[in-house]
Amino acid sequence: MFNSSQTLSTSDVYYSTTPIDLKAPYNVTTAGRKTILITGGARGLGEGMLRNFAKLGATVIVGDLNETRGESVIAELRKSSGNLNVHFLSLDVTSYASQCEFFRSARKLSPTGKITTVIANAGVAELGSFIESSPTKIPLDVDPPEPDMTTVDVNFKGVLYTTKLALHHLRSSPVGQRELILVGSMSSFASGPMMAIYSATKHGVLGLFRSIRLFPSKRDGVRINMICPYFVDTPIVPIGGKVMLAGLQIAVLDDVVDAVSRLVCDEGIAGRCLAIAPPQAGGVIEVGVQEMENVDAFCKKVVKAMNMQSKMEIFTKFLVDIVWLLVVGPVLRLLRE
């Protein structure tokens, strides 16, 4: 229900209105003054981001369940990059308490006590089988097994937790230096055969992005962007998936890292979504922009209508007060006399 005591501004949005020029260079030196949090940073896409930002001199704090791998990568990076401001923290993204502790500890590790960038990267592939391969073998009077909800807990609930905490803790940094990057997938836009739950969670992340890219606004100064990679050869892809993809074109990790690096370093990009396709299909491309802008235009009309309703309610109350003061009040006094 819209609260008529609050007035929204249709111009107070915080997203770029022009497409990203993906051929234009960006200033990587801006990464050196950032404190970047990455969930799920011990392997795969997160590790690629970690290595890139460590090399660029950023303070990078990654959280993951794989403590042995995470601590090993950090120790190796400190030696190879000379950057001592890289850290690993144990993190279970499905636990809100664990995420709260991760953010609090990260701020203590930051040289400035602030967080500038959060990348909600942690994710898993489809676990279990949501659609039974042979449903006819289960008698109708027998309930099918409960589906495995791990993928939902990690890919969607975990992202919701990270987003909520990011928007809270990013306030510690100056306006203009606050950014949240959501990691979706090509499955955010397309169907995924045999990946019903995974596709649903990535559609959910896209829905979250489309909603919150309009809020926080310029007042809050949080840039919210998203990446949607195609299949990349990382540990998240199960053996069966790798067999299925054998001989096919896949996206490359370097393109994913470059896309994230551009979003972090170019502080003029806000509310945009980059897909990472195989190099033969274009590599890094911007997607979903026109559709989202059409939806945004509709949302602005709704906001205007709600604001008009709010103004009409205030005006009506004002008129009632005037009528009471100038007409009803005197008439009642005359009747009493």
At CATH level 2, the architecture of the largest domain is 3-Layer(aba) Sandwich
Beta strand count: 8
* Whole-number total of structural domains: 2
Bulk shape: globular
Mean pLDDT rating = 82
InterPro entries: NAD(P)-bd_dom_sf, Sc_DH/Rdtase_CS, SDR_fam
GO molecular function: oxidoreductase activity, acting on the CH-OH group of donors, NAD or NADP as acceptor
Family: Belongs to the short-chain dehydrogenases/reductases (SDR) family.
Protein name: NAD(P)-binding protein
Please write out the topology.
Elements: E1 35-39, H1 44-55, E2 59-64, H2 67-81, E3 86-90, H3 96-109, E4 117-120, H4 150-169, E5 178-183, H5 196-212, E6 222-229, H6 239-245, H7 253-265, E7 273-276, E8 284-286, H8 289-336
Helix pairs in contact: 1-2, 1-7, 3-4, 4-5
Organism: Tuber aestivum (summer truffle)
Keywords: NADP, Oxidoreductase
InterPro entries: NAD(P)-bd_dom_sf, Sc_DH/Rdtase_CS, SDR_fam
Task: Walk me through the structure.
This protein is α/β, with parallel strands linked by helices. The protein folds into two domains: 15-288, Rossmann fold; 291-336. Helix content is 43%, strand content 12%. The protein has eight helices and eight strands; from the N terminus they run βαβαβαβαβαβααββα. The protein has helices at 44-55, 67-81, 96-109, 150-169, 196-212, 239-245, 253-265, 289-336; strands at residues 35-39, 59-64, 86-90, 117-120, 178-183, 222-229, 273-276, 284-286. Helix 1 packs parallel to helix 2 and helix 4 runs parallel beside helix 5 (196-212). The longest helix has 48 residues, at 289-336. It is globular and about 90 Å long.
